[in-house]
Amino acid sequence: MPDMVFGGSMLVLIIMFHAFWIRFITGAFLTRTKVIHKVARIWHADLLFALTVIALLTLHMAEIMLWTAALGESFALPHAWRMLAPIVAIAGIFRFSWTASVLVNFLARYNDLRAALLGPHGKE
For a Cys staple, 81 with which of 31, 76, 77, 104, CB 3.0–4.6 Å? Predict the structure, then answer.
């Protein structure tokens, strides 16, 4: 039972951490998209998308660090904590699928922005 309480608590904490930073990254992406649309430089759109992907990767690395900090250095858990590994896996699947859906949305908006910046003839 302690593994379920600890694992469930960590799962909720990390999902909330993920939610906060996904909201922040999304807001920054949408704000910058509007600015780039006015500036009309295609390389700004490319840079924004690259930095957004890096931000999402950094978020996932930070979440791995949170799990690592919570579990300690040695990963030899007692048998009574055998449910912790599946909980960690479930949390990862949740976060990964969430990020993937957000990234698909970003990619669609990035493609729309590039198309708008390139104009009807496809030239910068």
Answer: 77
Helices 42-71 and 84-118 pack at an angle, to 10 degrees, of: 170
Domain limits, the chain: 2-71+82-118
End-to-end CA distance of the chain: 60
Could you identify the residue written with the tokens 């690395």? 61
Q: What angle do CA 103, 14, 18 make, to 5 degrees?
A: 25
Q: Could you report the per-residue pLDDT of 30-89, keeping only the tens digit for each?
A: 999 999 888 878 899 999 999 999 999 999 999 888 888 878 766 666 777 777 777 878
The position carrying tokens 């690259």 is: 50
Q: Which candidate, 35, 46, 53, places its Cα nearest to that of 124? A: 46
